[in-house]
């Protein structure tokens, strides 16, 4: 099977992480895979090279010429399947289908409905009848799509994200570190990540409850290249104004996430909503429990007291309470949570499970 995977760039985003996982998994199953991009971003480029996966980067002098470049590349490759992540790449893939009928085109929506503000969404969805399949990485979004597009219900499939459980794995021996509770948050700094509620919760823990805690936030600090991220600036100012600069660090974009999870006690993921969070799967795979907002698919992943806790994302007090509960757990209970976290990831989010679902969909659609 010859497969072209289309996405805007290889920046450090969740969709980029998953399309790289898909490329690696498909190649391991014997597929001939090429990844096509058309804007700057090289965070995952070395990983593709390591696995000897072809990368075709289209120059972008203008939007029209970008489409012509993508169209020409797909026509040159003659793939059996084109799979595009996100609306603009999906729109390009579906327009290509009009002029070049051969490949099956699959499109993937990676966010939850109310967060999808992309200009291309209505145009892309108008062309969904041309798609062989429509993939949502969250069960919630798959159900929303089935209601919005009842005529295409049979073509809509929920395929959750995967994690490389060989890279994201616990330390050789699971253990609980005494003393300071080391918390980590991961994600690009945007409003829907809800970092300000986390900042207020950390203030309560540090000043009101006198708990020994530390916080690392890992993720790129710019919205787009060369554009200041005002939300990040606001968060930095909030940390400083609340007197937390001694216990809160901004780590920026990082590649060694597995080790950062392993050296943390808990991932705190306060997002208002997204598709299916990579960081939750990655943390669980390393045996790191997760305290996550009670939204979207999080309740399907996190079981209270089993592998983490859930909280109202609008309630800093409740978040502080859940962190306090975790901190005060006996070591044996926290160790069991670490073991349960790893088991959740290996059972539901392995690369083999995701690739099997994609291959079945590609072949049967």
Automatic annotation (TrEMBL):
<dbReference type="Pfam" id="PF13439">
    <property type="entry name" value="Glyco_transf_4"/>
</dbReference>
<dbReference type="Pfam" id="PF00534">
    <property type="entry name" value="Glycos_transf_1"/>
</dbReference>
<dbReference type="InterPro" id="IPR001296">
    <property type="entry name" value="Glyco_trans_1"/>
</dbReference>
<dbReference type="InterPro" id="IPR028098">
    <property type="entry name" value="Glyco_trans_4-like_N"/>
</dbReference>
<feature type="domain" description="Glycosyltransferase subfamily 4-like N-terminal">
    <location>
        <begin position="13"/>
        <end position="166"/>
    </location>
</feature>
<dbReference type="GO" id="GO:0016757">
    <property type="term" value="F:glycosyltransferase activity"/>
</dbReference>
<feature type="domain" description="Glycosyl transferase family 1">
    <location>
        <begin position="178"/>
        <end position="342"/>
    </location>
</feature>
<protein>
    <submittedName>
        <fullName>Glycosyltransferase family 4 protein</fullName>
    </submittedName>
</protein>
């Amino acid at each position: 099977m010859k497969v072209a995977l289309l996405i805007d760039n290889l920046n450090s985003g969740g969709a980029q992480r998953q399309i790289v996982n898909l490329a690696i998994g498909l190649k391991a199953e014997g597929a001939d895979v090429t990844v096509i991009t058309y804007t700057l971003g090289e965070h995952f480029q070395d990983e593709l090279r390591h696995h000897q996966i072809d990368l075709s980067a289209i120059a972008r002098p203008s939007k029209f010429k970008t489409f012509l470049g993508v169209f020409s590349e797909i026509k040159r490759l003659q793939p059996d399947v084109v799979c595009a992540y996100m609306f603009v790449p999906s729109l390009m893939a579906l327009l290509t289908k009009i002029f070049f009928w051969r490949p099956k085109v699959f499109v993937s929506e990676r966010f939850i409905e109310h967060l999808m503000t992309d200009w291309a969404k209505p145009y892309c969805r108008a062309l969904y009848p041309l798609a062989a399949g429509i993939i949502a990485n969250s069960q919630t979004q798959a159900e929303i799509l089935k209601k919005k597009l009842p005529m295409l219900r049979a073509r809509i499939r929920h395929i959750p994200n995967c994690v490389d459980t060989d890279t994201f794995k616990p330390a050789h021996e699971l253990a609980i570190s005494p003393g300071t509770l080391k918390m980590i948050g991961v994600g690009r700094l945007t409003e829907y990540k809800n970092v300000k509620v986390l900042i207020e919760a950390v203030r309560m823990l540090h000043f009101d409850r006198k708990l020994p805690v530390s916080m690392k936030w890992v993720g790129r600090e710019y919205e787009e290249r060369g554009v200041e991220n005002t939300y990040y600036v606001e968060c930095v100012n909030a940390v400083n104004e609340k007197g937390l600069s001694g216990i809160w660090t901004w780590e920026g974009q990082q590649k060694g996430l597995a080790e950062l999870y392993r050296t943390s006690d808990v991932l705190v993921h306060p997002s208002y909503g997204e598709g299916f969070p990579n960081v939750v799967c990655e943390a669980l795979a390393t045996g790191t429990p997760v305290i996550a907002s009670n939204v979207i698919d999080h309740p399907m992943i996190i079981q209270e007291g089993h592998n983490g806790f859930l909280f109202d994302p609008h309630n800093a007090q409740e978040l502080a309470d859940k962190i306090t509960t975790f901190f005060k757990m006996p070591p044996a209970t926290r160790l069991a949570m670490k073991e349960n976290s790893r088991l959740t990831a290996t059972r539901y989010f392995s690369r083999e499970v995701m690739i099997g679902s994609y291959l079945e969909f590609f072949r049967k659609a």
